[in-house]
Design goal:
Blueprint: E1 4-7, H1 16-26, E2 31-34, E3 40-41, E4 44-45, E5 58-61, H2 72-77, E6 82-85, H3 92-100, E7 104-107, H4 110-116
Parallel strand pairs: 1-2, 1-5, 5-6, 6-7
Antiparallel strand pairs: 3-4
Amino acid sequence: MKKTVVIGASDNPGRFSYKAVHQLKRSGHEVVPVGIRKGEVAGLAIETEKPAVDEVDTVTLYVGPQNQPSWYDYILSLKPKRIIFNPGTENIELERKAQEQNIKTMHACTLVMLSVGNY
């Protein structure tokens, strides 16, 4: 399965990042939730210290573009195969930086991709 880092993870059940962590885990993916507030989602601790993670397949973003610059170095350091820009997170600057490092970028919804089986 695809190791996925969820940037913007939240313990708030009303947030899409919360739903994504649950659905990714239910679908058998290894998930690393990373956010700005400590908490727990789907039985996993939300990491707040930008942990080193090896062999990342996917970074899925739930942080708006105005708050992404402080995440750029971390996201790129993970060397993911792809970054999913969920609705509202689209960012041309980060996309360009990722593509310069041969990281695939997608404008998509993680929840929809999981529900239709093309994650």
